[in-house]
Write a structure and sequence with these properties.
Blueprint lengths: L7 H11 L3 E4 L12 E2 H17 L7 E5 L4 H9 L6 E5 L5 H11 L3 E4 L14 E4 L2 H7 L17 E7 L7 E6 H15 L6 E4 L11 H7 L3 E4 L5 H11 L3 E4 L1 H11 L13 E4 L6 H11 L2 E7 L6 E5 L10 H8 L4 E2 L4 E4 L4 E5 L6 E2 L3 H7 E2 L2 E10 L5 E6 L3 E4 L2 E4 H9 L4 E11 L3 E10 L7 H9 L10 E4 L13 H5 L12
Parallel strand pairs: 1-10, 3-4, 3-5, 5-6, 9-10, 9-11, 11-12, 12-13, 25-26
Antiparallel strand pairs: 1-2, 7-8, 8-18, 13-14, 14-15, 16-17, 17-20, 19-20, 20-21, 22-23, 24-25
Helix pairs in contact: 1-2, 1-7, 2-3, 6-7, 8-9, 9-10, 10-11
């Protein structure tokens, strides 16, 4: 027997087994009226109501619905109301600027655009056949309560469920097509490795748009556990939510973890979650000292994963093992600093150049409307991650360098080529190389090395402001250094490894 795997499996089980349990606590402080506390029966009903609303608007199966939103119960429900009804959800990074978002909406061919009220003014010029600002007024149109939606004609686990745009080595982001099968296997694998159960309370410190919240919206739902929505990151507020709701699980980038540690230093009384909260970090390898502080200062369990948007994302997991129980916190942190061992069903190896290659059912179907880029990424059945790494005798992967010219700052991918293109558009810039330099708060920070055109003049702030006028602020250089020449090969290619070297002097790996 073969039964198609779809995202509906998670919400259907939650409704059937835990229908009367509180499922999601929406962010109370948001510009749209927050939804009240919803049970799993309520969430499932709203997902069906959303599907019925799409029916009424004539949005058919396979059509793309783009959502630009901070974390919210409305965005969460769309993972089931949109993808679960045979449409394709396109969750977009709300930190991007209007030009970048407009490109994604156009590139994916979205027939519907849903916008967070906070972003209404800045995105006013972006349109789609159906365009709504999220809130009570649009709820009346988008959700047809009590109306049974049309059944999904032929549910398929190979159908695209979401398209998640990621910044890579190209100047424009690529749309990663994740199938229902990709999402299903990632969520169940992740949940199994992290021991997710119906006793868990999950805090959404990770943006839901970010590779679908790494799959936690699905994995936690399938177990009937509770979701707590957090709209904006603040270290002290995270501690307050852990305290108020009994949070047992959260995911974050190292920059968020650093904010929590800073807030813990000023927290009055016992740190909430001590001995009960599990934290999953990814986006960049955190310093060993930070990992140690999670145990000694917070009393939380530290876990690390590695993956990419293209892999749904889970490829490796590094969770404290029984063999680590007798180690000191510093020794344990050293073991947990590795990216981890392959997740169930994932195969990893490195090629002759040290690039990490992966095979797994969580690897994407391909890049939306970019077959040539897909063929570059998946070769002979192996996905090329673009990351340099080594696999030790215990089978654990460590990321030591980045082959792609991607900078990871605060857990967000920044394409160095995109930033270079922007700087090149300034009349005074003759040559530019953008690299990542280590940063204690963000992991890496964007640094631009610039050669000015003969006779031209520009200062550091002018070039930073130029980038801020055209790019999301997290992509913009925090430093600009002026050079007479930039290191190049005989064929004129920039030698970025030489340009990066002084910034990473004394470190044993070229990522932070």
């Amino acid at each position: 027997m073969r039964v198609e795997l779809t995202v509906n499996d998670f919400i259907d089980r939650a409704e059937a087994v835990y229908g009367d349990r509180i499922a999601i606590v929406d962010e109370p402080d948001q510009p749209a009226a927050p939804w009240p506390q919803l049970t799993w029966r309520d969430v499932a009903a709203r997902a069906r109501a959303q599907a019925a609303g799409l029916d009424a608007l004539g949005v058919g199966e396979g059509e793309r619905i783009a959502v630009v939103s901070h974390n919210s119960a409305r965005l969460f429900t769309s993972f089931f109301g949109v993808s679960g009804s045979g449409r394709v959800l396109v969750p977009i990074n709300f930190r991007l600027n209007a030009e970048e978002i407009a490109y994604i909406v156009e590139h994916c061919g979205a027939t519907m655009l849903l916008i967070d009220p906070e972003l209404e003014d800045s995105l006013r010029g972006i349109d789609a056949k159906h365009r709504f600002v999220l809130g009570a007024e649009s709820d009346a149109i988008l959700y047809r309560d009590g109306v049974e939606p049309r059944p999904w004609g032929a549910p398929s686990e190979d159908a695209t469920a979401t398209i998640n745009y990621t910044s890579g080595t190209t100047a424009r982001p690529k749309g990663v097509q994740l199938t229902h099968r990709n999402i299903w296997i990632n969520a169940t694998t992740f949940g199994w490795h992290m021991g997710v159960s119906d006793r868990d309370v999950y805090l959404h410190t990770l943006p839901m748009f970010h590779c679908n919240g790494w799959g936690m919206p699905f994995g936690v739902t399938g177990m009937g556990a509770q979701h707590i929505v957090l709209r904006k990151i603040d270290g002290a507020e995270i501690l307050r939510r852990v305290d108020a709701h009994g949070v047992t699980l959260l995911c974050c980038a190292p920059a968020v973890l650093a904010a929590v540690l800073d807030a813990a230093g000023e927290w009055s009384g016992a740190i909430p979650g001590r001995g009960t909260t599990r934290l999953v970090a990814a986006g960049a390898p955190p310093p060993t000292r930070t990992i140690e502080r999670v145990e000694t200062e917070l009393g939380w369990e530290f876990n690390q994963i590695y993956g990419l948007t293209e892999t749904s994302p889970l490829l490796t997991i590094n969770r404290p093992r029984a063999e680590y129980d007798d180690l000191t916190p510093a020794e344990r942190a050293g073991r947990l600093g590795r990216a981890g061992s392959p997740a169930i069903g994932a195969q990893l190896r490195t090629d002759e150049e040290g690039e990490v290659l992966a095979r797994s059912n969580v690897v994407m179907d391909g890049y939306w409307q970019q077959p040539a880029e897909t063929d570059k990424a998946i070769v002979d059945g192996w996905f090329h991650t673009g990351d340099g790494g080594r696999i030790d005798g215990e089978g654990y992967l460590s990321i030591v360098d980045r082959k792609k010219d991607v900078i990871i700052s605060g857990g967000e991918n920044v394409s160095s080529i995109e930033v270079e293109d922007c700087l090149f558009s300034h009349a005074s810039v003759a040559e530019v190389a953008v690299i990542g330099a280590p940063d204690e708060k963000w992991g890496e920070t964007v640094v631009a090395l610039v050669v000015l055109a003969p006779g031209a003049a520009a200062d550091e702030q002018e070039l930073i402001d130029h980038c801020r006028a055209h790019l999301a602020h997290y992509k913009c250089p925090t430093r600009v250094e002026f050079r007479d020449v930039l290191a190049r090969t005989a064929t004129g290619k920039l030698q970025k490894f030489k340009l990066r070297q002084p910034f990473w002097e004394g470190r044993d790996r070229l990522v932070n």
